[in-house]
Automatic annotation (TrEMBL):
Belongs to the methyltransferase superfamily. PrmA family. The lineage of its organism: Bacteria, Pseudomonadati, Pseudomonadota, Betaproteobacteria, Neisseriales. Its EC number is 2.1.1.-. Coiled coil: none annotated. Methylates ribosomal protein L11. Keywords: Cytoplasm, Methyltransferase, Ribonucleoprotein, Ribosomal protein, S-adenosyl-L-methionine, Transferase. The gene is prmA. It holds the Pfam family PrmA. HAMAP family: Methyltr_PrmA. GO terms for molecular function: protein-lysine N-methyltransferase activity. It catalyses: L-lysyl-[protein] + 3 S-adenosyl-L-methionine = N(6),N(6),N(6)-trimethyl-L-lysyl-[protein] + 3 S-adenosyl-L-homocysteine + 3 H(+). This is Ribosomal protein L11 methyltransferase. GO terms for biological process: methylation. S-adenosyl-L-methionine binds at residues 150, 171, 193, 233. GO terms for cellular component: cytosol; ribosome.
Length: 298
């Protein structure tokens, strides 16, 4: 079985209307990308959860998939008329059926965090069988170790966990940080996330790694509980809002680890958290920052 894939460049102001019109006319799927992706003119677009993104790329590329026998020319002409744009040029190619599971899996190789800590998808043999291997597959929740924000936190855990610590992972995503802490010797770990799917994924991943952790929604977190280490790999805006709450869950002398912060946001966030913590120098990786600090006595 095969499909037709069509690529069309369009002004970003009407790209969504055009893509919606294609779907209404029978396209199987549409996606909007930066037309300059992969070039020096690529435009990164960042946003915070719950906040609208008020900027799109100067020029968008619509990728649309059609049945092999679809009359693509007629559909594109009708969609252009619906969107109020001139008939665009397009590129067309045939997409053959593939084993998409294997294709997807081939994109995810084992990830080395350190000599003793690896993340290994379940379909791979570990390159370092004597190391600590986190069995983790890409799924519904954020955090597979490939992103710099997660990698920064894992590197800190690898260097800092000595054994017996009580861990809170706030915004646990896939549960990877809580699971890694346990496999590195932490006594116990609690993971909190606002997404029920993340809680489910974290429990599944913990079982897959033969560790026991407690994952739940924010209302399950014991109000007065305090931890030796609190990890929050989220984004700058929730870190701003949650500062007082997160600080309240770190015991005096305990450590906080913050990530999901862009380099240009590091100074502001470090200054904010210095109300409660003696902050260390930031650590940077590919445009992202890790902040750490030690909780002062109340």
């Amino acid at each position: 079985m095969a499909w037709l894939q069509v690529s069309i460049d369009a002004d970003s102001r009407i790209a969504e209307r055009f893509a919606d019109a294609l779907m209404e006319l029978g396209a199987l799927s549409t996606a909007i990308e930066d037309a300059a992706a992969g070039t020096e003119f690529e435009q990164p677009i960042f946003g915070e959860p719950g906040e609208p993104v008020d900027q799109l790329w100067d020029k968008s590329r619509i990728i649309a998939l059609f049945d092999a026998d679809a009359d693509v020319a007629v559909m594109i002409a009708a969609a252009a008329a619906e969107a109020g744009m001139a008939l665009p040029a397009w590129k067309e190619e045939t997409v053959e059926a593939q084993d998409w599971v294997r294709v997807t899996q081939a994109q995810f190789d084992p990830i080395r965090i350190s000599d003793r800590l690896w993340i290994t998808p379940t379909w791979h043999e570990s390159p370092a069988p004597d190391a600590i291997n986190l069995a983790l597959d890409p799924g519904l929740a954020f955090g597979t170790g490939s992103h710099p924000t997660t990698r920064l936190c894992l590197q800190w855990l690898d260097a800092s966990i000595t054994g017996g610590e009580h861990i809170l992972d706030y915004g646990c995503g896939s549960g990877i940080l809580a699971i890694a802490a346990l496999k590195l010797g932490a006594a116990d770990a609690v993971g909190i996330d606002i997404d029920k799917q993340a809680v489910t994924a974290s429990n599944d991943n913990a079982a897959q790694n033969s560790v026991t952790a407690t994952f739940g929604l924010p209302d399950t977190l014991v109000e007065a509980s305090q931890y030796d280490v609190l990890l929050a790999n989220i984004l700058a805006n929730p870190l701003r809002v949650l500062g007082d709450l997160l600080a309240s869950h770190v015991r005096p002398g305990g450590r906080i680890v913050l990530s999901g912060i862009l380099d240009e946001q590091a100074e502001e966030l470090s200054r904010l958290y210095s109300q409660w913590f003696d902050m260390d120098a930031p650590v940077f990786d590919e445009g992202w920052t890790r902040l750490t600090g030690t909780r002062r006595s109340v």
